[in-house]
Phosphatidylinositol diacylglycerol-lyase
Amino acid sequence: MLFLLSLFLVRWNNLIEQEKITALKYYQEISELGENQNDIYRRSKCHPDFPNWMKNIDDQRNIMDLSIPGTHESCARFGYPIAACQSLSLYEQLQRGVRFFDIRCRHINDVFTIHHGPIYQKINFGGGVVQVFVDFLKQNPSEIIFMLLKPEYNEESCTRSFEETLDSYIEDYESYFYLDESAGESGDITVGKVRCKIVLFRRFEKNLPKPLGNQIIFQDNTIFTSHTSIVARVQDCYLVPTIFHISRKWNEIESLLNEADVNSQKIRSRIVSHSKSRFVQHKYNQPRRESRNILFINYGSGTGVLCFPGEVASYINPLLGERLTNNDNNFVGVIMFDYIEDYFDNLIANIIIRNFDSIEELFARN
């Protein structure tokens, strides 16, 4: 056992060292890019932490029945105003309650560095993503992390395939990954099955014979359905050429929100609602709603030549916040935000609360 532990440490440390060497070799100029200028954003006044909000969710619940806060370009904090999409680090997002992450990896020198387009985000996949996720799960074993992985920018100086490099990262932490590609067919990906794991979804084909998570086949700039080992319904209409096109983006977001609600089923009544800045309890007889074995992913993000991510978020986040507040019992699936803590209070909590029957139930476990 001691020998295996030593072997793991050597392998992992070698991989992390290779990431550092690659970053120094390839990104000396890019590393001078400024971090996202947080002070220009209207930060949320209220941002409670929810590090273990999944603790008492029934083990038999299907993961597709959960309403989950997520972030688009989860690691993109550099290259403002064009490339930056978040103000919080991965760890801060996890602490706040974000559980669905959009991770973009450039395959370079047989390691993964994190990019948004051509812009290096000053962290790497092993030390900056996998290690952060695993450490968080060790501290909060009740939680589930969903990772949507996409190859980004051009490949350079590699001797193996993207999936082979991914496998090298997973190898020593395989017990923390859920990689099954078939369970979705029968709809039995339950919360209990994937607690304390990183559930991997991928946006690429693979040739390796071993499982590497369920694939979601994306279509460009549209609302679409992906039929693989799971069914995913996705709104990713990311192109917002100017500020005058943001209203069209909102219509596309609302369209999938309505579809998710219509396709959900009534489970049981709940007794809580909340205002946009703090939670207010009252009784009513609306049912909590959950999906019918479809993974809904709704991107609130967008960008264009004359309209950058922050501008889109400044318009979309308040509209989403109001929609969530006014329809507080509705199932929403996964919503992917840019600047998830900006422009509207309690966006994360507004999504989390839908998975519980009362406000006390949520706060008692955190």
